[in-house]
């Protein structure tokens, strides 16, 4: 989804309200495909000030992700705000590293809103994705989802004991009774 910056600014007197639903569908998140369940929304404004162009907007999206503990998929709402200067990319342009967070580069007078939305969604996905704070996860022994079922595995509180038993049984195999 591209908008032509100089045209939209000329038509709107250098201040443009933006309100878009952008169909992002899916994003590549460090090799994982993350489904965007609804069109993402972008709302804000573009404006020109002191010979610079700025984008101020709020972006929200609903993503379908997998819980890091129980592996079930669930929907999560992400919302983020963006306030950046837009700079046209050109040869010889050199931007200091510390300024990079406040800048979005564009080419050929075109602002790609879908690309911006995609990048913002990626940045706002939390490191630890849990379907709920209380997610009990999977049983490490039998693999059932402990949120949905209970198993008979005696592992939770006496994991060490189980390991010891395992070692003892190995020892018995090494020294068979005669
Ligand atoms: Zn979970
Ligand atoms: Zn189990």
Task: Report on this structure.
This protein folds into two domains: 2-124, no CATH class; 137-178. The mean pLDDT is 87. The protein is 20% helix and 38% strand. By secondary structure, the protein is α+β, with helices and mostly antiparallel strands. Bound molecules: zinc ion (ZN) (2 copies). One zinc ion binds at residues 67, 69-70, 72, 130-131, 135.
Short key terms for the protein model shown above:
178 residues, two-stranded antiparallel ribbon, 38% strand
Order of helices and strands: EHEEEEEEEEHH
How would you state the average pLDDT, rounded? 87
State the secondary-structure class: alpha+beta
Q: What is the terminal-to-terminal distance?
A: 78 Å
Rg is: 26 Å
- Molecules bound to protein: zinc ion
Fraction of residues in β-strands:
35-45%
- The backbone outline, from C-alpha atoms, is elongated
Main sheet properties: 7 strands, mixed
- Helicity level: 10-25%
Domain unit count:
2
């Amino acid at each position: 989804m591209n908008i032509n910056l100089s045209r939209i600014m000329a038509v709107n007197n250098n201040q443009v309200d933006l309100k878009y639903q952008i169909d992002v569908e899916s994003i590549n998140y460090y090799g994982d495909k993350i489904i965007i369940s609804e069109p993402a929304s972008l709302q804000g404004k573009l404006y020109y000030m002191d010979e610079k162009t700025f984008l101020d907007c709020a972006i929200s999206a609903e993503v379908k992700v997998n819980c890091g503990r129980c592996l079930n998929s669930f929907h999560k709402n992400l919302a983020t705000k963006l306030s950046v200067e837009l700079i046209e990319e050109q040869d010889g342009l050199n931007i200091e590293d510390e300024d990079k967070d406040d800048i979005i580069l564009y080419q050929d007078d075109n602002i790609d809103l879908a690309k911006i939305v995609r990048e913002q969604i990626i940045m706002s996905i939390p490191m630890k994705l849990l379907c709920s704070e209380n997610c009990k996860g999977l049983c490490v022994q039998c693999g059932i989802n402990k949120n949905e079922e209970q198993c008979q595995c005696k592992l939770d509180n006496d994991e060490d004991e189980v390991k010891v038993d395992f070692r003892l049984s190995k020892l018995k195999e090494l020294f068979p009774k005669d």
